[in-house]
Fold this protein.
Amino acid sequence: MHMHGLTTKKRLSRCSAISLLLLVSLFVSSIPAIAQDSDSIATLRRMGKAFASIAEKASPAVVGIEAEKVVTQRDISVFRDWPFSEPFSPFDDDFFDRFFRYRQPQRRYQQPESRQVARGSGFIISKEGYILTNNHLVGESEKVTVKLADKREFTAEVVGTDPESDVAVIKIDGDNLPTIELGDSDALEVGEWVIAIGNPFGLDHTVTAGIVSAKGRSNIGVTEFENFIQTDAAINFGNSGGPLLNLDAKVVGINTAIIGPGGNIGIGLAIPINMAKDIRDQLVETGTVVRGHLGVWFSELTPVYISALDLDEDTKGVVVTDVIEDSPAEKAGLKRYDVIVEFEGKPVDNGNEFRNRVAMLKPDTKVEMVVLRDGKRKEITAQLSKREPERETAASRTETLEKLGIVVTNLSDELAERFGYEDVTGVIVRQVDSGSEAARKGIKPGMLIMEVNREPVKNTNDFYEAIDKAAEKGTVLLLVHDGRATFLVGLTLPKDK
């Protein structure tokens, strides 16, 4: 019994020693984890301090903008999953849908004129008081008020607007104006941290952070020329026109829109600041923007085209599908099926990039291109002409909506694929007045108008001009395709006086 008791005590002693050793080893092994947690917390603190420093440095130059205008609300239909909801105005409910969500079909009935105020953001870029913001905020406004972080208020002059890029410049006169430095959006990398500052829902100088989710986003349907930075930094209604900043507190983009079913879901879009710089310079100098025009229709170089044209499978560029008569392209000798692989000494990666690069050059600029023709490289020089903005055509979108009850847009590659129009040409219906004859006769958004009065239409300029001519006699015959069948629609128009 005694020996057994001693053995039991020894065993207990050994167990205690082992337990102590285990506890010590666990404590020792946890030291790196505790240290790692401390390092992580310290890193987060440093990041928070960095964000705070950026906000402190940039916020004084971020302004709130109120734009006032008399507006008339129209009776329109808006369709879910369709990227356009007109009228394109920040002064009524459709502005929220146009830039901040898509919605189910609904109808709004004719209402009288009213004076309304749109609210957004901007940022001061010079001591002279120049401010960058969005065209959809201040374009066609009757009065623009700017509010600074120090509570000063100014009535701003609209220096110039560019609806095709959604960039606008306004100006205030004041002393000791804070400014913000512009960065280099081309140097921005996917995954890099960015910060958005603005006035969402009237909440002044709201700061949000996120990363660059993607670059070069296009075919969104927000503007004519698109090359958006995509970010998950929270952007909401009222952020429009505010800055997107890098970690150096420099502006890399102008916050413009979000995509989603309502409210922010982490898909925000910003205009690259390098694109905005060129537009700013023209607006400050002349009040307008002029763009270069080459005069070709083209398509993305897909694997099908690569195979059909006997090209190397890794070839990048755009394939010319048509050359406009008497255009710089025709004069330079470009032909259908030419594949443009280089423009101004740089490779052509995709159609949207190529289109933007041409448009950013001024008329009369001589450009050098390399094309593949029958598999052989050929150098071509062209002198650009002036691109005529669509809003300067004989019949504007508003006039055509009143005459015909519909508005159309060019058939991009993305829309052609979405609606099944890859092998046809025409213009695609983007809006239908629900009370119009066109709506009663079955025309709907997403349909393709291929001919007007038996004449093919390849773009919106052709369409608007054809409708303007048709209005002289009061009738128009449309050849319409709905993705399954082609049919004719005859409409009456109010005659021009």
About this structure: Confidence is low (pLDDT under 50) at residues 1-10, 73-111, 391-396.
